[in-house]
C-alpha cells in the first residue's frame, strides 16, 4: 500500500506533517482536501475542520486523514459489515476502515439513518435534543437529508450504537430503512405550505410508514423499495426518477381559473407575455388565446404544471383531486436508469378508506414482486423483464390507455429543462 505523501509522525498515527509534531493544531495537514475549499461554494471540508477543531474528536481527525490518504492513493478504504440495534435488522450503515492499522482513529465510522417527520417539519426542541444526543455519542456530523429521505447521523462506533439509539428513541426518533426492505420514503411540504397540493401526502406518508414498519426495520424482500410522495405534478421529491413507487398528486377535471386574478396578471404582464410565457410553452397546445384571455382544453392538458407555475394566483388544480401511481423509477442498477411508468392514472385519496385501499394495492404489488422478482432486482426491473402485461395481470390492475409500456429512461432531462 502506497504511503501518504509527505507522511511524518504525529501522535498516534502517520499524518501529513514533515516535522515531529502538529504544534497547536488539532488537525493534521490535508493539502488535497484543502483544494476543495477553493471556489465559490461551501465545502464539506470547511465544515469538517470547524467541527473537529471545536469538538476535538479524534474520529473526525482520523476521517480527514483517511480521506486525504484516499485522494493521494486514488482508492477508497471503507468496507461494510453488520451493526444493528435490538429487534432491528436495518437502519445502521456500516463503515469499517481497511487501513485501521495506519489510521486507528477512523477505524469505525458508521451511519445511523433516522426517520424524518413527513414533509421535513421539525420543532426546534426535537432538533436540539437530536443534536445533543448525537454530539454525545457520535461525531456530530449530520446530513439533512440523504437520498432515502433519512436524517443521516454520520460517524459512530459500534459499541455506542445501541445506547445512542435508546436515547434517541426515548425522544421519539426511530431508525430509518436500509437493506432489502421498505425504505423511509420522502414527502414534499405538501398541503402544509403549498397551494398546489392535490392530496394530503404527509398523512399518506405517515400511514405508509406505520403500515410497513415491520418490513422497514426487518428487511425481507428481494431488494429495496422506495416510496416518494409528491403532492402535485411539480414532483418536488423527484419521485418519478428516484422511487419505485411514485405517488404524485393530480386532478381529473378542468384547471380552476380565477378570472379577476387572470385579468390582473394580463394587465400587469401584457398579452404578449401571456402568449410567449404561457400559451406557446404549453407542451400539448392545450391553451388558446381567446378574447384577450385564455381558454384551456382540459382533455389535452397533461398536467405538466407549467401554466399553473407561471400564474399561481390565477390558475390552480381542478377540484376532483387524487393521486397517480407511477412505478419503477431508479438510478443505475442492472438495466440502467429508469423513470417510473404510469400504472394507476387516478385514485382518490381523501379518506381513511382511500388510504386503506391504497395500502392494499401496494401490498398486492409487493407480493407480486416478492414472488416474481429475482434477487437484487428492483420492481421496475422485474416489470421490464417480464413485461407490463404480465405485471398488470399478476396484480389484477385493469389495462388503461394512459399506462406507458416503455419508461422514459433519462431522468436528467428534468434537471436540464
Ligand atoms: Fe398545458 Fe401544462 Fe397548463 Fe396543462 S398544465 S394546460 S399541459 S401548460
TrEMBL record:
TM annotation in the entry: none
Domain Nitrite/Sulfite reductase ferredoxin-like, chain residue ranges per copy: 107-170
Domain Nitrite/sulphite reductase 4Fe-4S residues, every copy: 179-398
Top-level lineage group: Bacteria
SUPFAM superfamilies: 4Fe-4S ferredoxins (SSF54862), Nitrite and sulphite reductase 4Fe-4S domain-like (SSF56014), Nitrite/Sulfite reductase N-terminal domain-like (SSF55124)
GO molecular function: 4 iron, 4 sulfur cluster binding; dissimilatory sulfite reductase (NADH) activity; heme binding; metal ion binding
InterPro entries registered for this protein in UniProt: DsrA (IPR011806), NiRdtase/SiRdtase_haem-b_fer (IPR005117), Nit/Sulf_reduc_fer-like_dom_sf (IPR036136), NO2/SO3_Rdtase_4Fe4S_dom (IPR006067), NO2/SO3_Rdtase_4Fe4S_sf (IPR045854)
Claim: Ribonucleoprotein is one of the keywords in the record: no
Signal peptide from the UniProt entry: none
Keywords: 4Fe-4S, Iron, Iron-sulfur, Metal-binding
One Pfam family cited in the UniProt record for this chain: NIR_SIR
Protein name, as recorded: Sulfite reductase, dissimilatory-type subunit alpha
Amino acid at each position: 500500500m502506497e504511503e501518504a505523501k509527505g507522511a511524518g509522525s504525529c501522535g498516534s498515527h502517520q499524518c501529513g506533517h514533515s516535522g515531529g509534531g502538529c504544534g497547536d493544531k488539532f488537525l493534521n495537514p490535508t493539502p488535497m482536501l484543502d483544494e476543495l475549499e477553493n471556489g465559490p461554494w461551501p465545502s464539506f471540508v470547511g465544515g469538517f475542520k470547524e467541527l473537529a477543531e471545536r469538538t476535538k474528536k479524534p474520529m473526525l481527525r482520523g476521517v480527514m486523514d483517511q480521506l486525504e490518504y484516499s485522494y493521494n492513493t486514488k482508492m477508497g478504504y471503507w468496507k461494510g459489515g453488520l451493526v444493528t440495534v435490538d429487534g432491528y435488522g436495518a437502519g445502521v450503515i456500516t463503515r469499517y476502515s481497511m487501513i485501521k492499522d495506519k489510521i486507528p482513529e477512523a477505524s469505525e465510522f458508521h451511519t445511523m439513518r433516522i426517520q424524518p417527520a413527513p414533509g421535513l417539519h421539525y420543532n426546534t426542541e426535537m432538533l436540539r435534543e437530536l443534536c445533543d444526543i448525537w454530539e454525545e455519542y457520535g461525531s456530530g456530523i449530520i446530513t439533512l437529508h440523504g437520498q432515502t429521505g433519512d436524517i443521516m447521523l454520520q460517524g459512530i462506533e459500534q459499541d455506542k450504537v445501541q445506547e445512542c439509539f435508546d436515547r434517541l428513541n426515548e425522544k421519539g426518533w426511530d431508525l430509518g430503512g436500509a437493506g432489502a426492505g421498505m425504505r423511509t420514503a420522502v414527502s414534499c411540504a405538501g398541503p402544509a405550505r403549498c397551494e398546489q397540493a392535490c392530496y394530503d401526502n404527509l398523512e399518506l406518508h405517515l400511514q405508509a410508514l406505520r403500515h410497513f414498519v415491520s418490513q422497514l426495520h426487518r428487511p425481507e424482500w428481494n431488494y429495496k423499495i422506495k416510496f416518494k410522495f409528491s403532492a402535485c405534478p411539480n414532483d418536488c421529491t423527484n419521485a418519478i426518477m428516484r422511487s419505485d413507487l411514485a405517488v404524485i398528486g393530480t386532478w381529473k377535471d378542468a384547471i380552476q381559473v380565477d378570472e379577476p386574478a387572470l385579468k390582473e396578471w394580463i394587465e400587469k404582464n401584457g398579452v404578449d407575455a401571456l402568449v410567449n410565457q404561457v400559451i406557446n410553452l404549453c407542451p400539448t397546445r392545450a391553451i388558446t388565446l381567446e378574447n384577450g384571455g385564455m381558454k384551456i382544453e382540459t382533455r389535452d392538458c397533461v398536467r405538466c404544471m407549467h401554466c399553473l407555475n407561471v400564474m399561481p394566483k390565477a390558475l390552480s388544480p381542478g377540484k376532483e383531486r387524487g393521486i397517480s401511481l407511477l412505478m419503477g423509477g431508479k438510478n443505475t442498477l442492472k438495466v440502467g436508469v429508469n423513470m417510473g411508468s404510469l400504472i394507476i392514472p387516478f385514485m382518490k385519496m381523501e379518506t381513511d378508506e382511500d388510504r386503506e385501499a391504497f395500502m392494499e394495492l401496494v401490498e398486492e404489488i409487493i407480493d407480486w414482486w416478492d414472488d416474481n422478482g429475482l434477487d437484487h432486482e428492483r420492481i421496475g426491473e422485474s416489470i421490464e423483464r417480464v413485461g407490463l402485461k404480465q405485471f398488470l395481470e399478476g396484480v389484477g390492475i385493469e389495462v388503461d390507455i394512459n399506462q406507458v409500456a416503455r419508461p422514459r429512461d433519462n431522468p436528467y432531462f428534468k434537471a436540464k429543462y
